[in-house]
């Protein structure tokens, strides 16, 4: 009895069936694109924190650019995903910069300095509440 013969499987480095001989098979995934999208989404959700908006947004932009370049060179798919991840990272970065700018402008304002002095000179909880009330009225003007 002879053993049944099965067709030979192509080697892992060879091109898939129907592809030109010698052409490398494209990668099944683009890790940079997936990473950029995840980091971009996280940057948009956590833009109000320094780490969330600035760090994650910057990383999403870098990974998005790397993923888009790999896809453009034909070494990986999902170019659009990489671009969307970079754009979301940029939006998270811009949102975080705006939050930081508004925070610094608020903490350096004359109203905030007056609030700090009022709270330090307050002797009771009622006086502290009055300071907070006056601060809120000054901000709404």
Large-scale geometry: elongated
State which percent range the strand residues make up: under 5%
Largest sheet: none
Fraction of residues in helix: 55-70%
Number of helix segments? 5
Radius of gyration: 28 Å
The total number of structural domains is 2
Low-pLDDT ranges? none
The ordered H/E elements are HHHHH
Number of strands: 0
Distance between the termini: 97 Å
Helix/strand-derived class?
mainly alpha
Instruction: Average the pLDDT over all residues and give the rounded result.
Output: 80
Describe the structure concisely.
This protein has 141 residues and is mostly helical. Helices cover 67% and strands 0% of the residues. The relative contact order is 0.13.
What are the key terms here?
mainly alpha, 2 domains, 5 helices, 141 residues, 0% strand
What is the topological layout?
Elements: H1 31-45, H2 50-72, H3 79-107, H4 110-121, H5 125-139
Helix pairs in contact: 1-2, 1-3, 2-3, 4-5
What does this structure look like?
This protein is mainly α and 141 residues long. The protein folds into two domains: 71 residues; 33 residues. Helices cover 67% and strands 0% of the residues. It is built from five helices and no strands. Helix 1 packs antiparallel against helix 2, helix 1 packs parallel to helix 3 and helix 4 runs antiparallel to helix 5. It is elongated, with a radius of gyration of 28 Å.
